[in-house]
Design brief:
Shape: globular
Number of strands: 13
Radius of gyration: 21 Å
Strand content: 15-25%
Strand order of the largest sheet: 1-3-2-6-8-7-12-13-11-9-10
CATH architecture of one domain: Alpha-Beta Complex
Largest sheet: 11 strands, mixed
Order of helices and strands: HHEHEHEEEHEHEEHEHEHHHHEHHEEH
Distance between the termini: 15 Å
Helix content: 25-40%
CATH class of one domain: Alpha Beta
CATH topology of one domain: Amidase signature (AS) enzymes
Length: about 475
């Protein structure tokens, strides 16, 4: 059931917010032991809020699951890390949570994730690996794997995730749900535990494009507590969403359809493109020439920012603390050694290296220059097309454990999503079919729609059309 359908049932009296939450809790008890999407949930607090729900509000009484790096007052916020599993409870609401609550929603459940959002499989969680509901031997994607898996498994009606290099869109594609990354600055980052501050963005994972528009409407807007927040009016994202694609120009980048794409992914995406063309869209070949540099650029900039952001986890102020250190430096060493997992350590080391005095210009400064070239590619493309269409990932969901000893393969799985974060543009993943892959008969495939800066309305309109032609 979509949020829109559930809200209609609330208004008609067919069901209640309390009953909806109780049904979710029953589903979690029955199915989540296999999927492992949830880290925790507070049923009593959610039921208390449900009893006071104002059904006249846009999200009145609707339960929304929250990725475990977004602060919710009174709830744990582990970030999938041993550093925060014990001894940390949020004492404030993130701005996105405050906006959800103001719109009538009920935050319900803390969703598993790759540790500090560093990963593409939710295998890097210190707590548990999240499994794909379509095949429990497969990854759910990451880092918002818990959020995507719960929505796909019907143990959440919708969820919030965060996207730094594809962490909403990639698990959405693998799990067969809708995942939306807004324009950078469209949604406040206040209360989101920072990974890479110039890339992170909060967004929804849902079972329909309409639901994604509904949640984005609630959480978007300027926030003085976030200096990168955009002070521009928020349009009605549901307005015109059903207007179709007739007359629109859709760009198909050659660089996103080259070697390395699984044939089933290519066929599903190309079939959806043809269906959009049959509905009146004009399909235009384009080039994004600096695409091949996106992964390398990202894995200089993101770890550099992570090494700075994660320095706050020192064993002194909150979280994991060594018990018998020799001195303050040993306290830092021991606390971080025990608190951080292998992938987080790897990225901190890499980030510290590229920021060091002897290598700053060679790596970090150069990466920032290439980032501008990637951004320019998109600006030039959007001078001739309304949006860009591509796959979300090169392959469907792989088997759990297949890239554990080869992190580079994990990094390359984000090759089609990273550029949207580097350039700050909005992007969405919409299910577009299934394909056989590596012994599985029918794994989900997503199509990605990228739009110009603050072009969410156009993007949602195309996404709704893509959703319609596949249904």
């Amino acid at each position: 059931m979509t949020l829109t359908q559930l809200r209609q049932q609330f208004i008609s009296g067919e069901t209640t917010p309390s009953k909806a939450i109780e049904d979710l809790a029953a589903g979690i008890s029955a199915r989540d032991p296999q999927t492992q999407a949830y880290v925790s949930y507070d049923l009593d607090t959610a039921l208390e809020a449900a009893g006071k729900a104002d059904l006249s509000k846009p999200l009145g009484g609707l339960p929304i699951a929250i990725k475990d790096n977004i602060n919710v007052f009174g709830q744990p916020c582990t970030c999938g890390s041993n550093f925060l599993v014990k001894g940390y409870t949020s004492n404030y609401n993130a701005t996105a949570i405050k906006k959800l609550v103001d719109a009538g929603a009920i935050p319900f459940g803390r969703m598993n994730m790759d540790e500090f959002a560093m990963g593409s499989a939710t295998e890097n969680s210190a707590l548990q690996p999240t499994r794909n509901p379509h095949d429990p031997t497969r990854i759910a994607g990451g880092s918002s794997g818990g959020s995507a898996a719960a929505v796909a498994d019907l143990t959440a009606y919708a969820a919030l995730g965060s996207d730094t290099g594809g962490s909403i869109r990639q698990p959405a594609s693998h799990c067969g749900v809708v995942g939306l990354k807004p324009t950078y600055g469209r949604v406040s980052r206040f209360g989101l535990v920072a990974f890479a501050s110039s890339l992170d963005q909060i967004g929804p994972l849902t079972n329909s494009v309409d639901d994604a528009a509904l949640i984005l409407q609630a959480i978007a807007g300027h926030d003085p507590q976030d200096t990168t927040s955009l002070n521009t009016p928020v349009p009605d994202y549901s307005a015109g969403i059903n207007d179709g694609v007739a007359g629109m120009k859709l760009g198909i980048p050659a660089e996103y359809f080259g070697e390395g794409i699984h044939q089933g992914v290519r066929e599903n995406v190309e079939k959806c493109i043809k269906l959009l063309e049959s509905k009146g869209a004009e399909i235009i070949p384009i080039s994004l020439p600096h695409t091949s540099h996106a992964v390398a650029t990202y894995y200089v900039i993101a770890p550099a920012e992570a090494s700075s952001n994660l320095s706050r986890f020192d064993g002194i102020r909150y979280g994991n603390r060594a018990t018998n250190p020799d001195d303050i430096i040993d306290l830092y060493h021991q606390s971080r050694e025990l608190g951080f997992g292998p992938e987080v350590k790897r990225r901190i080391i890499l980030g510290t290296y590229v920021l060091s005095s002897g290598y700053y210009d060679a790596y970090y400064t150069r990466a920032q220059k290439v980032r501008q070239l990637i951004t320019r590619d998109f600006k030039q493309a959007f001078e001739t097309v309304d949006a860009i269409i591509s796959p979300v990932t090169p392959t469907p969901a792989r088997r759990i454990g297949t890239c554990t000893d080869d992190p580079l393969q994990d990094y390359l799985s984000d090759i089609f999503t990273i550029a949207a974060n580097l350039s700050g543009i909005p992007a969405i993943s919409v299910p577009c079919g299934t394909t056989a892959f590596d012994g599985a008969d029918a794994l989900p495939v997503g199509i990605q729609i990228l739009a110009p800066h603050l072009g969410e309305q156009t993007m949602l309109r195309i996404a709704k059309a893509a959703e319609a032609v596949r249904s």
